[in-house]
Fold this protein.
Amino acid sequence: MKPIDLRSDTVTQPTPAMREAMAKAPVGDDVYGEDPTINRLQEIAAEIMGKEAALFVPSGTMGNLASILAHCGRGDEVLLGDKAHTVIYEAGGISALGGVHSRQLPNQADGTILLEDIRAAIRPNDIHQPPTRLIALENTHNRCGGVALSPAYGWAVRAIAEQYGLFLHLDGARIFNASVAQGVSAKELAQPFDSVTFCLSKGLCAPVGAVIVGSGSFINQVRRIRKQLGGGMRQAGILAAAGIVALETMIDRLADDHTKAKKLANELALIPSLVLDPGTPYTNMVFLNISPEFPHTAQWVAAKLKERGVLVGVVGERRFRLVTHYWIEDKDVIEASQHFKEIMANG
Ligand SMILES: *Cc1c(COP(=O)(O)O)cnc(C)c1O
């Protein structure tokens, strides 16, 4: 039996429409710029995000890395939230490969960084200190519960960036979840930023890939860096074809994932030994803890759930992350909640 996989939206399989588009995609050598399907994906992506140009990359991690390497030279400093994906989950690539100095400022519960913290962190022109070059934000903010940042916050940070002559990058891996949750376009969310990375995999279900958007000259720069990183791909239109289906048909339906996450949270909230985070879910992620009186750990509960065909993310000793996506149906939400209830009752 197919498990109910709530570990992440990264587990999503491509849809039948994607597999069909992939089989039929016209392709060419993209390092020569000759793959028509990739070129089309990049045009669509640039249009949706309201930027001049776009570049297909194998992963969101490479998108952030190439973007940050384009904005920062060796020894330059980037200001990031301390819970940023780039800080925690990208294997230190910006420092290891780019010599970029990362300065981590406290992420607030709502995924923002305080404007006064950003201002205070910007370095004076002093030969003892690394020059501040870039501010990077994340939307939706993964480690802050999948919470969405508003366009107003983006503009407030933009004003600081302009005042000090800094670049502004957005890790928008799940920018379409942020867009759908707030009822604002991805273009509006992207507008304050010089560069944005977003994922075609995850909630949009493409098997592989992410896109970087920005000005034409910036995209030329990241195209060279992508080559340096070994990310110049040949007939990758096969992959881009799924990305086109993702952008054309899979964005609006993310609202269903958010509805299912709410339903899941409502069901789990009824179970006495589970404590949901205040505000969860903001988008497609439900965060919860096991209450102190329950005798077992999250690992223990996850193992019991797995025996019953339910997979969940364990993100702490007594903490879970559950993510809804295209392949989770309403009945799966009910079934998973029922298993949770029985396991927590018999613990
Ligand atoms: C998933 C994710 C990425 C990129 O991950 P890849 O697996 O490399 O595509 C970047 N930022 C955030 C916030 C993410 O959740």
The chain has two domains: 10-249, 253-346. The chain has a mean pLDDT of 98. The first helix runs from residue 16 to 24. The pocket of pyridoxal-5'-phosphate is lined by residues 59-61, 64, 85, 138, 142, 171, 173, 199, 201, 210 (CB under 6 Å).
